[in-house]
Design goal:
With about 280 residues, the chain is an alpha+beta fold. Helix content is about 55%, strand content about 10%. It has a 5-stranded antiparallel beta sheet. A two-stranded antiparallel sheet has the order 1-9. Strands 2-3 form a two-stranded antiparallel sheet. α6 runs antiparallel to α8. The chain starts with a helix and ends in a 14-residue tail after the last helix.
C-alpha cells in the first residue's frame, strides 16, 4: 500500500513538472511569436522617442561665435579684432619675459612684475583689445535680445537657428546698437586708460576690468564678455522646427534681404573708436 502511494505521489509530481514546463513553452511559442514580440518592443520604443523628441541645448557662444568667426574674414572691424579666431594672451601684448620656449629674461621679468605691482599703465594695445571685447559683447548681447523676441517659445531646428543667427548678427552690425546695450557700450568704449591691477593679467580700464588669462571683461559686477555677453546668459533649445518657427525664419530672411539691399555697408568706424 505504501509503495502504491509513493508511486502515485511521484507520478503526480512528474505530471505537475511537465505541466509547468508545458505552460512556459506555450508562452515562448514559435519563432513567429518571438518576432511579433520584438516588433512590438521596437514600435513602443520608437513611439516613446517620437513623443519625447531629441533636444539639444546651445549656449550663446555656440550659436553666435560661428557667424562672427566667419565675418572676421571680411568685416572691417571684426577683422581687425579677431578675438574669436585669434584670442590674445599676455605674451601677445609684450607682457611676458619668455624669450624662447622655456627661456626667460630675468631682468624683463622683474620690470614686468614691478609694473604690475605698482599699477603702471598697460600698453595701448591692451586698450584696443578691451574695445574689441566691449564690441563683441555688445553685438552678441544685442543679437540675443532680437533672437529672443523673434522665436520666444517656438521649437527651432539647428539649420533654422543657424540661418536666423546669421541674419540677426548682420542686422545688428548694419543697424547698430540700441537701448541699454548701446548706453553701456558707449560707457565702456570710453572707459579711459588701462592700468595693471596687481598682476599682468588683471587690467583696470575705468569701469571695465579685463582678465587677459580668461579672455574676459567685466563692467562692474556684470560680465560683459566671457560666459555672458552684454550681461546676458542663456541657451537655445534645438529640436525639430515647428511650422511657425519655419515661417518666422523665412519671413525674417525675406524682409532682411530686401532691407539689406537698400542699405550701405557698415562704416569701419561705426563701432570701434579710432586710436
Amino acid at each position: 500500500m505504501k509503495t502504491f502511494i509513493s508511486v502515485a505521489i511521484m507520478f503526480m509530481f512528474i505530471y505537475c513538472l511537465n505541466g509547468i514546463a508545458y505552460s512556459v513553452d506555450t508562452n515562448i511559442d514559435t519563432g513567429k511569436s518571438r518576432k511579433d514580440t520584438k516588433e512590438r518592443s521596437i514600435n513602443q520604443r520608437k513611439a516613446q522617442e517620437g513623443s519625447q523628441g531629441v533636444e539639444i541645448k546651445l549656449s550663446l557662444d555656440a550659436v553666435f561665435f560661428p557667424v562672427l568667426t566667419n565675418l572676421e574674414k571680411t568685416h572691417p572691424e571684426l577683422k581687425s579684432c579677431k578675438i574669436i579666431s585669434k584670442p590674445r594672451k599676455p605674451a601677445d601684448f609684450g607682457l611676458s619675459a619668455e624669450t624662447s620656449p622655456g627661456v626667460y629674461d630675468t631682468i624683463m621679468a622683474q620690470v614686468l612684475n614691478t609694473s604690475a605691482q605698482s599699477n603702471a599703465m598697460a600698453p595701448k594695445s591692451v586698450e584696443r583689445y578691451k574695445n574689441c571685447l566691449v564690441m563683441y559683447g555688445a553685438i552678441i548681447g544685442q543679437a540675443h535680445e532680437r533672437m529672443a523676441r523673434l522665436i520666444t517659445n517656438e521649437q527651432v531646428g539647428y539649420e533654422d537657428l543657424k540661418e536666423l543667427s546669421r541674419i540677426i548678427i548682420e542686422q545688428t552690425l548694419l543697424d547698430g546698437l540700441q537701448g541699454q546695450i548701446k548706453q553701456s557700450y558707449e560707457i565702456l568704449k570710453d572707459a579711459g586708460n588701462c592700468r595693471f591691477n596687481g598682476s599682468l593679467t588683471n587690467i583696470q580700464c575705468g569701469v571695465a576690468q579685463i582678465d587677459l588669462a580668461a579672455n574676459r571683461l567685466m563692467f562692474g559686477n556684470v560680465e560683459w564678455y566671457g560666459q555672458r555677453f552684454g550681461g546676458y546668459s542663456g541657451e537655445y533649445r534645438v529640436s525639430q522646427s515647428s511650422k511657425k518657427a519655419k515661417e518666422i525664419v523665412m519671413s525674417h530672411k525675406k524682409a532682411w534681404e530686401i532691407a539689406k539691399s537698400g542699405k550701405q555697408a557698415v562704416s569701419p568706424t561705426k563701432f570701434m573708436p579710432q586710436h
